[in-house]
Amino acid sequence: MIIDCHGHYTTAPAPLGDYRDAQKSALANDASHHGEKGAIKITDDQIRESLENAQLKLQRERGTDVTIFSPRASWMGHHIGNSWTSKYWTEHCNELIYRITRLYPENFVGVCQLPQSPGTDLKSSISELNRCINEFGFVGCNLSLDPSGGFWTSPPLGDRYWYPMYEKMVELDVPAMIHVSEACNPCFHATGSHYLNADTTAFMQLMTSTVTKDFPTIKFIIPHGGGAVPYHWGRFRGLADMMKLPSLDELLMNNVYFDTCVYHQAGIDLLLKVISTKNILFASEMVGAVRGIDSETGHYFDDTRRYVDNAEITDEQRAAIFAGNARKVYSRLKL
Ligand SMILES: [Zn+2]
Fold first, then answer.
1. How far does residue 245's CA lie from ligand 1's centre (Å)?
2. Considering the domain boundaries, does residue 80 fall inside one?
């Protein structure tokens, strides 16, 4: 069994994008525009077509079994419009994921995006999380630590601002993948710098907080291999020491997990060497940020199964990374 814990619906049929464009046009005339949720017409056949030659084809080719699937991350766009814009958009995106999990219950398990909106509280996000877990059978959420899209206007993850969300996550026993969306600050490339900055920043914010002390059972996945964290593990350990914090193992590593969305063998080897096996979940983020073929290997960059297969670890470790750890972290996962 191989569980890919990080996939997005990057191939959604055109009417989803048309809906978003209409939202943006209405906002261009009136930034406070609320509008109505409305409907998006997408047929089951359109959904099948969008997946058969993309995520499902790659699942089959690469021999992975199930993908923990969420709406397209770069399209979450929490900074666009106001809280109503975000609420309606998010509901539609999550409902589409729910339909996919009904059409392909063997292949996809849902994770929701949240209707975060800069400068607003998390009530609507908590209520959407509740809906997706209890009504749709989803198993987690994607939580952005920077809904401003690259301007970093939200308080850090240790701030009490986030605590109502953490309380709900603990109550429902669901993890959050900490995942930003597109960057509207031209200093950052979305997938090349903003995502990785955010991953690294999330780890440091959690390290300098009391979140894991206040919520001993909370679970976070830091994607994209943990950003710069595994590579700079000595720096983080040294900083923890200088700050008179407990060791990272004690402070964070019962609550924080990294995925394997690292697109070369040496990167995966380093991740597996530095970070305990129990903290690593298999993922590819396909079809996603890097879609091409590596000229050095002749294989897709995001075919991360190959790197884990080729890594010098025991079969027991491989089984934990491929499925065992995901089953523990996503405790609602029923396969
Ligand atoms: Zn992602």
1. 30
2. yes
